[in-house]
């Protein structure tokens, strides 16, 4: 399954992770992870939001490359919209085929 990592530099990572989880939690299953992150499940695609001190790490694991790209776009655009005031930008690594 293809996997991709995204990073958004911010000192408010827990707040953005919670905001994204809350937003999507009305539509899809969302759970809090033991380490303070959130897992979102879009059908067969998992998104893990892991806050750190200076960035938010986003891991997307999808059944195929097309779905991976779609979910990257959805999560990235929502985060950037939520963080527009702080010029938040998500930078994605090249996907791996795990």
List keywords for this structure.
98 residues; single chain; alpha+beta; seven-stranded antiparallel sheet
Cα gyration radius (Å) = 12 Å
Global outline? globular
Contiguous runs where pLDDT drops below 50 for at least 5 residues: none
Secondary-structure-based class equals alpha+beta
Q: Describe the biggest sheet? A: 7 strands, antiparallel
- Which whole number gives the mean pLDDT? 94
How many E-type strands?
7
The portion of residues assigned to helices is: 25-40%
Proportion of strand residues: 35-45%
Succession of helices and strands: EHEEEEHEE
**Total of DSSP H or I helical runs spanning 4+ residues:** 2
- Rounded to the nearest angstrom, the distance between the terminal CA atoms is 5 Å
List strands and helices in order, with pairings.
Layout (H helix, E strand, L loop, with lengths): L1 E8 L3 H12 L5 E3 L5 E5 L2 E7 L3 E7 L3 H18 L7 E3 L3 E2 L1
Antiparallel strand pairs: 1-5, 1-6, 1-7, 2-3, 3-4, 4-5
Textual characterization of the structure:
With 98 residues, the chain is of the alpha+beta class. Helix content is 31%, strand content 36%. It contains two helices and seven strands. Strands 1, 2, 3, 4, 5, 6 and 7 form a seven-stranded antiparallel sheet that branches. The protein is globular. The model has no long low-confidence stretch (mean pLDDT 94).
